[in-house]
Amino acid sequence: MKLADDEKAMLDGAKGKAKQKAMDLLVRYGEALGAERLVNVTNVAGTWNAGSPPMKPFAEKGMDAVFSKFNLDSDEVVETPQAEVYTCQLIHGIDTQNAHVTGVAEEAVNRQKQAERYFGERGVAMFNTCTPYQVGNVPVRGEHCAWMESSAVVYCNSVLGARTNTEGRESTGAASITGKIPYWGYHIPENRLGTHLVDVEIDVDSMMDWGLLGYAIGEIVQEDIPVLDGIRKVPSMIKLKHFGAAGASSGGIEMYHVPGVTPEANTVEDAFGAKKPVARLKYGAAERKVAYDNLNSSAKSADVDFIMLGCPHNSIEQVWTIAKLLDGRKLSPNTQLWVFTPRALRDTAELNGYGDMIRKAGGHLMSDTCPAIGRVMPNGTQVVATDSAKQAHYLPAIMKCQCWFGTVEDCVNAALTGRWQGGLQ
Predict the structure, then answer these.
(1) Where is 88: in which H helix or E strand?
(2) Total structural domains in the chain?
(3) How far apart, in whole angstroms, are the C-alpha atoms of residue 393 and residue 372?
(4) Domain assignment of residue 161, given as a range
(5) pLDDT, tens digit, for every residue of 395-414?
(6) What is the pTM of this model?
(7) Regarding beta strands 196-200 and 124-125, do their DSSP bridges make them parallel or antiparallel, or are they unpaired?
(8) pLDDT in tens, 186-221
């Protein structure tokens, strides 16, 4: 790789041991990818947590040991420097304010709180969410970033027009203290052009419909870039959030174009540039039904134990919708309801009274994690209901449960009655 003078200085150790380790990691990473150089990044979203069991022996030696091992892939413990660029914490495994609900041990909670304070003082904004763009981290078009988390990456690339690949804990850790990442993949303009043209032949309007569309397209295009032609109504942030998360789960979509909506494609022609589509796909009623059936394929029993809402983490608008549906009503004694939102938005929801509305019905307002990431569900859960295509995709495999997918109204109704009555309208 060709290194700039400041990069050579870091690699040579002139900027300290931690940055030397970070630069060594980035150079090896870039060479493995075939990158010819590094690029300056101004925005990093990764993870600096310490609550999970594998981190316990390192945390007992101090947070520098955690950072060295898990953020720099270094067996040698080095002192954690201040972040060099704007950096934030993504979703992790523990909701420290609701550990009694999820059954997480106090010891793990204390380690996580220690990590939050330690790394927060070193410049990591503790947003603790898979949707940092909902709470203030909103890079602009063309800005080079280093982000983890599949649903966040596809939103960053597609909706915001910023540039990132799907990074890992080590590469984001290194990027945060160097301001560098390998220049490859979606950092390169020509790699951001569309590959598949999708003719959308039916109206796609509800959040569930956008999840179904994403799930169907992701299975087909995998890691390529779909261009959606035929979208009749401008989708909201919530709908694009769920579309990207679904496509990144059934496939590996990191970028898409909706001509006239997403910033890098005013037209279909813009989306492809000088390229021709490698395939033309159709999405209609039949494809929609297949996606719905696939997402509900694990579910056999209509008796629902657990309802999970908020993957990707709910916006304040979504929390309000759930609170209204629950207002003055009570959950079935046979169900539990967990509603997830970013920690900062949970504070807003509490201020607005939404948390009390959810709790009075028997539910819990939560943050920082989710069942798939935290590997947590109520004891004895066998059947789950969710409005998230991503959770419906992962939970049956990760948690060995049945899972129903539907609208938020279907899910709240299941929480109130203990029975799944949803369906494809």
Answers:
(1) strand 86-89
(2) 3
(3) 10
(4) 5-189
(5) 999 999 999 999 999 999 99
(6) 0.97
(7) unpaired
(8) 999 999 999 999 999 999 999 999 999 999 999 999
